[in-house]
Amino acid sequence: MKIIGTGAAHPKCAVTNEMLEKFLETNDEWITERTGIKERRVISSEKLGDMAVIAANKALEDANLTAADIDYIICSNVVNEYVTPALSCIIQGKIGATCPTVDINAACAGFIFALDMAEDKLKCKKAKNILIICAEEPSRMVSWKNRSTCVLFGDGAGAAVVTEGDELKSMRLTTSSLTEVLYYQRQLEPTPYIDKEENFEPLVMKGREVFKHAVTNSCRDIRKVLGEAGLKAEDVKYFVLHQANKRIIDSIRNFLGVDEERVPHNVERYGNISSAALPALLDELNREGKLEKGDKLVFSAFGAGFTTGACVIEWAK
Ligand code: UT7
Description:
By secondary structure, the chain is α/β, with parallel strands linked by helices. It has helices at 17-21, 28-35, 48-62, 87-95, 110-123, 207-228, 246-256, 267-270, 277-287, and strands at 2-9, 13-16, 39-42, 72-76, 101-104, 129-136, 156-163, 168-178, 182-183, 204-205, 238-241, 296-303, 305-314.
């Protein structure tokens, strides 16, 4: 596979750390020091599906394709206002595509899981052009009274168009069922027959444990995919890492011994936008003209589950 187009969309409402100080016992200094985040974009009047459509259309335009050229759509999403239909069905209609679609939930690692699925579809010739959209609104999973979680997240969408090619050099996915460190339970309708206790609460996160798993697993994954691709860290132009916390990004960078310039970040502007973080950051690099044909890129992400994914891709545009 190869990536031939990227796109992104962010909500208009920018929430700064100072704005959070008005209703939470927090401050800009704490948030900046512990996370690197200065502001995040949060959905207000927008619908997540509409943002996903903007990101998708930008990616199609960048790829010089139309929706009619797309044979399959994969949408990575943890939560949105619909349980059913899948978000990908909504996006398909709005962009005017007619191909089959599927939603996946691999939490923040969703973009890499989607790339892996796309590679398989392309390899067995079941599709030629695939649209991947990651659209997330974690702001609707957290309690806005909980300073430990709500300051960390933002909403947004990122997209990529992939087609046949030989530019995916290595891929590693992992799942280790570790569900108690990060979860969000959905409230279902009551029935006359439910006789079990059900507690619903906003997103629960053991931040320190997630931090440790994130750094350990990402470093391990990155070393493995580099090894499989026959590359050293110095051969890589950019390490495109999940944007959850600048301290996590810096720890991974230090363990790998990589200079700061080769580990781009935008977490300071958008917070953690879950699986949309990787394609949105890739889109920034692409549109800023920072990527050249032949550049080796490493993607790495981690998320609830615990899921992790990493891959090496050669830039083909
Ligand atoms: O996509 C995966 C999603 N999740 C993550 O990536 C999260 C990974 N973890 C982290 O990023 C960090 O663990 C956090 C940023 C969540 C927390 O940083 P920390 O350095 O691990 O702090 P902590 O949780 O140990 O909390 C230290 C103190 C606590 O106070 P006490 O108990 O020491 O008095 C917290 O109550 O900081 C307090 N605190 C805050 N203070 C001001 C927690 N949140 C805030 C806040 N403002 N927003």
